[in-house]
């Protein structure tokens, strides 16, 4: 796994790459092929106490198995926010 991050005045952008070289399924002769994915994370400050957050997972829509026999979803996303109150 490798991550590139850009941060400037509260703005944060991160790009994470993951790679798996492939493996055999547990207790089987079936081989799961290698795979690589990219994830993007963004934080945008809206006010001094609220930050908009967002993620896009599996940007390349790669089909792979993270756990044996369980296919990972294609491209998915999450949008949210963070309130910071006090200190």
Automatic annotation (TrEMBL):
Superkingdom classification of source: Bacteria
Gene3D superfamilies tied to this protein: TonB-dependent receptor, beta-barrel domain
Gene Ontology CC, one term: cell outer membrane
Broad class of the protein's primary localization: membrane
Subcellular location: Cell outer membrane
Keywords of this entry: Cell outer membrane, Membrane, Signal, Transmembrane, Transmembrane beta strand, Transport
Membrane topology: Multi-pass membrane protein
InterPro entries referenced in this protein's UniProt entry, alphabetically: Beta-barrel_TonB_sf (IPR036942), TonB-dep_rcpt-like (IPR039426)
UniProt cross-references to PANTHER family, sorted A to Z: HEMOGLOBIN AND HEMOGLOBIN-HAPTOGLOBIN-BINDING PROTEIN 1-RELATED (PTHR30069:SF29), TONB-DEPENDENT OUTER MEMBRANE RECEPTOR (PTHR30069)
Protein's recorded name: Gsr1381 protein
Organism annotation: Gloeobacter violaceus (strain ATCC 29082 / PCC 7421)
Organism ancestry: Bacteria, Bacillati, Cyanobacteriota, Cyanophyceae, Gloeobacterales
């Amino acid at each position: 796994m490798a991550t590139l991050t850009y941060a400037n005045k509260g703005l944060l952008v991160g790009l994470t790459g993951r790679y798996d070289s492939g493996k055999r399924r547990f207790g089987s002769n079936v081989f799961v092929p290698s795979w690589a994915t990219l994830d993007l994370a963004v934080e945008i400050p809206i006010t001094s106490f609220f930050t908009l957050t967002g993620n896009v997972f599996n940007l390349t829509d790669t089909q792979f198995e993270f756990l044996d026999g369980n296919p990972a979803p294609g491209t998915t996303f999450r949008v949210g926010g963070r309130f910071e109150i006090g200190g």
